[in-house]
Amino acid sequence: MKTDLLRIANVKTNVRGRPAVWAALLVFALFVAYEFYARRHASNLLQQETLDNAIATVAVTYPKPGSPTETIVLPGNIEAWFQAPIYAQVSGYVKMWYKDYGAKVKKGDILAEINTPTLDAQYSQAKASLEAERAQYNLAVVSAQRWVALRKSHAVSEQSISVQEANEKKAKADLEAAEHNVNNFVAQLQFKTIVAPYDGVVTSRNINVGDYINKEGNISDRSAVTNLFSVADIHKMRLFVSVPEAFGHFLRAGLTADVTVPQFANRHFKAEFLTVAGGFDPNTRTAVTEFTIDNEDKSLWPGSYASVTLTVPIDANNLTIPSSALVFQEHGAQVAVVGEDERVHFKPIKIIRVLDGRIEISAGMSKTDRLISNPSAALLEGDKVRVVQPANGYEINPEDLN
Hints:
The chain has 402 residues and is of the alpha+beta class.
């Protein structure tokens, strides 16, 4: 009886413990299934990430139309419309000067006077010689007339008459020579007075009262040749610029330039094309180009340094690309573009010129080409790539992105 009771108790205990076992088994099975799924998912993610990392990422930009104009800044020199160094033509001592630095003068104004005692004495001697030759000529005329009058009476020979006529011609020639000599001194005496050759301003005065000067240009110091004055006509100025060869075909009538000078930093002057040298300097590959600037207010001075800005038209059909996009291979200059198949393709290009951070090209690309802005050296033709948007300021200029 007691044994039967124990069996019944064990049976009841087993019946009561089975749900807990099944529950434990279920939890274990769910855990195993979750771990299997999680590891399989992580493996798939790792595989996908590995595949993604195997595809190079690139940032792209697009070719841009070139500017219709191009600007270049060049140094220039401003000179007077006319500028004449005035030298002495006679020897003597400076009696007085009347115009100093910066003086505004009119044509014919007296700049200085020179004492020329030697020249004055020579002039007096030349006048005296002229009077002597005039007397000799008058005597020769009278003698010739008398000898000719005696021809009818045959009192003198034809030979004597011919001699007297020849003497008259010689005396006339000597008289004319004496007159020319006097006129020569008269012309030299005019240079005792130094005058302005045209309206302008005195830019230099190199003499003082008492200085000895001569027609070789020496002022007291015989080892140097010096001008007495310099006079400049500055109602209009000449601007000289050495323009590079690449801009040579733009140098023609109608071209203008914007000019600034250090003394007027905020003022702009307009210069108009006048002429060009018509040849390039083989050493600098530049052509001397001359412009004119109106200077009615006399604000510009000769010898000024100028900053000259030239704006010229260029072919607007050309495209520009970042210089960082260039690829140099054995086939020449190329660029890498991303095709519709998301693969890399290399295109040859024709470079016109190198600008500031950009390259101007005339062939090889269109505006719609996706240009790799900074291609890696590991990229090969046909490689698959993934286009990404870079952070601003990283590797490329955000303005290049459309």
